[in-house]
Structure formats: C-alpha cells, structure tokens
Amino acid sequence: MSGQEFQQVTESTAGPAKPNPYGPNPADYLSNVSNFQLIDSTLREGEQFANAFFTTEKKIEIAKALDDFGVDYIELTSPVASEQSREDCEAICKLGLKAKILTHIRCHMDDAKVAVETGVDGVDVVIGTSKFLRQYSHGKDMNYIAKSAIEVIEFVKSKGIEIRFSSEDSFRSDLVDLLNIYKTVDKIGVNRVGIADTVGCANPRQVYELVRTLKSVVSCDIECHFHNDTGCAISNAYTALEGGARLIDVSVLGIGERNGITPLGGLMARMIVASPDYVKSKYKLHKIRDIENLVAEAVEVNIPFNNPITGFCAFTHKAGIHAKAILANPSTYEILNPHDFGLKRYIHFANRLTGWNAIKSRVDQLNLNLTDAQCKEVTTKIKKLGDIRPLNIDDVDSIIKDYHAEVSTPQLKSISSGNDEDLEAIDAGEPVSKKAKTSN
Amino acid sequence: MSGQEFQQVTESTAGPAKPNPYGPNPADYLSNVSNFQLIDSTLREGEQFANAFFTTEKKIEIAKALDDFGVDYIELTSPVASEQSREDCEAICKLGLKAKILTHIRCHMDDAKVAVETGVDGVDVVIGTSKFLRQYSHGKDMNYIAKSAIEVIEFVKSKGIEIRFSSEDSFRSDLVDLLNIYKTVDKIGVNRVGIADTVGCANPRQVYELVRTLKSVVSCDIECHFHNDTGCAISNAYTALEGGARLIDVSVLGIGERNGITPLGGLMARMIVASPDYVKSKYKLHKIRDIENLVAEAVEVNIPFNNPITGFCAFTHKAGIHAKAILANPSTYEILNPHDFGLKRYIHFANRLTGWNAIKSRVDQLNLNLTDAQCKEVTTKIKKLGDIRPLNIDDVDSIIKDYHAEVSTPQLKSISSGNDEDLEAIDAGEPVSKKAKTSN
C-alpha cells in the first residue's frame, strides 16, 4: 500500500488534558467516587479468615491502627458468637476511637438485645434472601424476613444507635423480593441498606445496575460488601460507588471467609487514581504498610508478592524501554506515586532486558562519566552476561568500572538524573528486603 | 410501626431460574464471554517481572505446560532483547506445540526483520500512543507512528504470518488518534488490534466503552492487555469480553512489570462462572495448580495466601452459619466448585466461630453417635476453649470423645454427611499443607 492511500492522522489539538482524566465519570450523576466511606471489617469478616485468631490485645491494637489510618467505621464480630467476642466488643467500644464501632448480627431479637448493650455506635443486621440461603441456611420466607427485620430495626432505633439492614447473597436473590424488603426497611428509617456479594459471583456492570436500581427505591445510604472469589472485589466496589453506593466494606489484606473481600490497600490504590485529593486528605496512606504487616503477622500469612501498593515489585521497573521513560518522567509508567504511600520506586537495571538509559543512570549514581555511546557499549557487555546468568548490582558495577577504567575518561562530576532521590537500584539475586539494603 | 403498615412481600413465583444467572448479559450482543481466546505472556510480560530469569530449559518447560493447559497463544520476549532471547524463541517455535507462538516487538523494521526469521506464527507489534510515551519514550508523532506501523505490518504480512498492532497506554491516548490509527491498520489487514492499559489506570466501565467504540471502527479481532496496579485487571478483562474483545493477555500468577497483568488462574475463576461449558471444554483447569507452582518456583515467589482458586483458603469455610449451609448444599456459599480444579473443600470447625452443624459433621466423621442436643452441648464446650486459645483438630476430637464417653451413647454407625467425600477437616494451628495430611 502506497503512502497516499494512508489516511492522514492529524494531531489532536485538544487543549490541556483535564486535571484528572481518571476521575469520576460525569455521566454518573449519583457517583460517590469522591465522597465514599470505609467500613473496615478486619475484626468481623477478617475473623472468619481460616488463619485468624485475634486475642483481645491484638484486636485492640488493630482497631487503634485502623482508627489512626482514618476508616469511618470498624465492624466487630457478633457478641453472641462467643463470650469473649462480647467482652472484646465492649472493650473496643470503651477505647473512645474516632471511628464508629459497629457489630454484625443475625436478624434475630436475641442477637439484637445483646448487641445494643455492648456500647456500639451501630448494629449491622444481615439475613440471607437468596433461595439458596432461605432453603439451606435459615429456611424462612420473605414475609418472615420482613417481619423480623422490622422488629429488630425498630428495637435498635429505639436505643438511639445506627442500624443497617443488609441482604445476604444479594446477587442471587430475586430482584423484586430485594427491592421490596429494602423499600420496607427504608420507610421505617434504617441508616443504611446493604448489598452483599456473599459468594463473589457479581461482575462490575451487574453491580452498577443493581446499585442504580436500588438508589431509585431507597433514600438511605447504600453499603456494599464484595467477596473476591472471582477477583472482582476491588472493581465491584469502585463500580458500586460510581452507581451511587456510599460505603464499602473492606478488610486489611482482604482477609475473610474463603478468599475474603475487598482489600483496604487495594481499594486505596483504585480510589487514589480517581479521587486523589479526597483520598489523601482523609486517609493516612503511608500507614497502609504498617497495618498490613500488623495483620499479616497476626494471621500468620505473608504479604502477597503482587499485593497492591505494598507488593515488593509494585513500583519496580525492569524492561529497558520502561526504565528509560521512568527516568524521564515517572508518570509515563506509573499511575500511582510511591511517595503517596511512603514508599520508593526501583529501577531494576541488573538484568538482560536492561537498556542503556537505565545503565546511564547507574553510571551517574556511581559518579562516573561516560558518553552515551560508551554507555551503550557497556550495556551490550552487561546484557551478554545477563544472558548467561542472573545479575546482581556488583556484577553490573564491576563491568561498568572496568569499562570506565579501560576508556579512562577524565573523571568529571556528571549531572545526575533528576529522579535520583526517587530511585533505588535492585538486583535479581536476593529477596527484595535485602535488595533495598544492597542498593545505593 | 404496626403490621398493617408493612407492605406485604409476596414470594416471587418465577419459574425455575435460568440455567446460569451469571452468564453473558443478553444486552451485550457483541459479547465474547463464551467465545474468548487466551494469549499467555508469562514468557514475555512475565519475563519483565522483577524476579524473573528463565533459562532456556525453564522456558520450554513452561511453554509445554501452557500448551497442555490449552492456551491459544504463547507470547515470547522480543528476539532483539538479547541473543539468548532470540535463540530461545527459535527453540520454542521448533517444539511443534498446538498453541500458536508469538513474539512481541517494537514498531521498527529492525525488530520485525529479526522476528519473522525466528519461526513464530505471529508478531505482536506495539507502540506508545499516549502523549506521555510519545514525549518520554520514543518521541514520535502519530503520523510517524502510522507510517512505521504500515511498513512493519505489510512486511510481516508478506511473510504469511499473523500480525497484531497494539497501542501502548491506550487509556491515556487521545481517542481520535487511537481510532484513526486502528482504522488505518485494520484497513491494511492486521489480524488483531490491541488495547493496552499499560499503567493499570482503567476501570471496567471505561474499558467497556472503549472496546464497544473500537468494535464499531474495526472489523478485525480486538485483544486486551490489562495491568493490575489498581486491582482491576481481572474485571477489566471480563468487561472487555462483554464489550466484544476476543482475546485476553494473561500470565501465570499475573507476573509482569510492577504488579503484573491479568492472572491466568484468576481469569479462569471469573470465566468459569460466566461460561462453565466453554471454559471446562477448552482448558485443563485441574492443571492450574501445577502450572502456578512451576512458575512460582522459577521466579522464587510463594503462591499468595489469597490467590484465586489455589490460595490455601479459597475453599475453606469457617463461620458456623456458613458451615451449616455448605454441609446442606455447597452452592449456598460457593460459586466455584473445587472439583473443577482438582481441589477439595474444607470445613474449618476447630475455632470459636464454629457451629453445631459443623461439629455434628465431625462427630459423624469420627463415626460416633450423638443426638443434635448432645452435639449442641459439646459445641458449647468447644467454643469455650476456642475463646481461650487457637484450637486444632486434636483438641476438638478429644473434647468430642470425652463427651461421648460421658454420655456413653450406645455406639451405632451413624449416617454420614452427604458431602463427606468432598470434605476435609482442618485446624488452625498448622500450615495448610500439613492440615490436609492431618485430616481424615
């Protein structure tokens, strides 16, 4: 095909991009993407994680850390689950935290009567509404559910504390049944209604549709709870906010039944992209790493290697073409700024995919002086060795230094890369905890 | 509020639910949710993972495992990345796998000339189209991009192999520029155009809109590549298929630059819910665990505790109310069936959140005979100890056995739970690898 057949591409002359192209979609006039609240359920849903056994002291330590981070609510295991659960609930209510304390109970007066005596700021009531749960869990019909919901709700309200009514397994419940019960409890004045994807089956556009529909039926706030069995818990939460939900249930590292729910850190990664000012002003993002380490230690798991934000490689750039652009402008390959989370970015230059720009920045870090042509030549030597075995920083540095000696360029102080203070070099041979140490 | 004010809730009398309520949305007339293909990029994107150094032997082992699993394409690192990369590419092409072999190159004739000599079935060409990449990476304008794209595409086509043209950082590129270049390359007959969320900034509804729009401009297939920086890579892939994309880039465990891309296993968890017949007939799901272990070992990481499907707790049920329902019908709290992946489900009964139904099933497993009332009584004893310290199976078993001795019920063979063959009991005290062993 010859040139003239090619349709000329004209540079778009649109003015400066809007401040945040990843912000809320203007079409979502009910969006709460920039006005959401967090209900942390590490001490309720998280206690249902296979490895979780929290002592009273550990629960208090976690509750204080979450409060310091800035979560709006902290949800605790039902006081009827066990005697210790009840005592722990009372102990945490006495801490006088900024975050409101909630407990999570079945839709029974027996549970409600115990819950309201613990000192909580609110009660989260849940009952299964799907045919599965109605048949195999509590075995009650929708009329029974509505009647008991009304009794429990009016009782809790009479105590002057917040009340949320949530269905369980909402996405496998009959839509008419759901809207009917939500409309009923909204009328009698619940603070929130909850949608729960108890089995993790929902996908984002389903979530958006259900939230938008529910929003047209109730006047109270909508809270959403998403399990992560099919890997959609973060985006389902985001899409729910786009549709008008106001509150999202999270837990540290997402721990909960099975593979858990929307993780606190992962949701922060998603939300800071959409609403940087709101998120940075409201939550202490640099505390995420400490909170995750605290909970990971308590439940005896490791931080996943690919965990959002805190995964060891979340801010590591390896391919030569990536490293080049990152050195010129980090935004080229980063939508998240590690500084927002008290973290650093890494350029991984000690590997066979490295490029001469990454090596040049290393040359600068070593305060050596090589021309671009020389940097390219030494890069070729490094890539050759990288083909033979994994490289570490020492390998690369000695190749660079030997080469520098050969060419014996007069030693001049070079202009160092504008991003030096952001950068750490890492090698491939050791765990990253060590890598950071061996860097300079 | 008195009864008559309560709006009567009538049971919905809808007939039997449609076979799969989680299937493709009928409104998505272009949906490929039941007709998608996988391009595994573990040996390209995955090689850009910080810890990745694959020897030739390991690359071949991984390629064979992916081919056996059933991926449609295997994408390899550019042959110009290093001499060894080129040789490995040729070696894998010679294996005669069912999967088509692709290599991934910059939009340069220099790269294309090397690529077409390696024996690959197709070439994936990529070039940055966002203002960021055009400014800080290759520094070319859209006209240059279009011209070089046409030259490379026509050259590769002349060799009779597949060609894909992808923009890079598509979601930060100018829409008019994008559609213009895609329309141009579609006209000259590329096999696929690619959309890449290179920085992981996209959200599902954005993805749906872009794919739907692109679908109206090109006649070729659409491939999508999603990074996972904000935790949306799985749902973005799903939503892209709903919008009409046909191919999804994945890697084993999602390894790649930074936190990587859509994980193979995670996407399978999402897709089996939507298209069970298609997914089960096309891919060997029971191989996922082995492939993940193979790659995890090669790059020296652990399988994340909460990994989709293969995370140690993915099929573990803990809370009493969950255990009760799971024992009655696993679908109550499971959207995924562990058997589809060659895995088992666990009821975690040795903890203070346990319920008497879980304990009753344990009593049955022990072939003891207790009445429901007696099971409830012994459950109370177990929960009391669970408040004091973490429990293991031996703790629970001895409490049950002591209690059984006390009440000295005549030993009769009890009817065992219908799910016994599905169930394994686990305790909280040990790593799960051991748990399975200690189970019975």
Give an account of the 3D structure:
Chains A, B: Residues 1-13 have a biased composition (Polar residues). Chains A, B: InterPro entries: 2-IPM_HCS-like (IPR050073), AIPM/Hcit_synth_CS (IPR002034), Aldolase_TIM (IPR013785), DRE_TIM_HCS_fun_bact (IPR048253), Homocitrate_synth (IPR011872), LeuA/HCS_post-cat (IPR054691), PYR_CT (IPR000891). Chains A, B: Belongs to the alpha-IPM synthase/homocitrate synthase family. Homocitrate synthase LYS20/LYS21 subfamily. Chains A, B: Residues 1-26, 411-440 are annotated as: Disordered. The structure is a homodimer of 440-residue chains. The first copy, chain A, has 440 residues and is an alpha/beta fold. Chain A folds into two domains: 31-299, Aldolase class I (TIM Barrel, Alpha-Beta Barrel), CATH 3.20.20.70; 316-407, no CATH class. The first copy, chain A, has 16 helices and eleven strands. The first copy, chain A, has helices spanning 56-69, 83-93, 109-115, 131-136, 142-158, 175-187, 204-215, 233-243, 264-274, 276-282, 288-298, 320-328, 356-365, 372-388, 393-407, 432-438, and strands spanning 37-40, 73-76, 100-106, 122-128, 162-168, 192-197, 221-226, 247-250, 316-317, 345-347, 423-425. At the A-B interface, helix 2, helix 4, helix 5, helix 6 and helix 7 of A face helix 2, helix 4, helix 5, helix 6 and helix 7 of B.
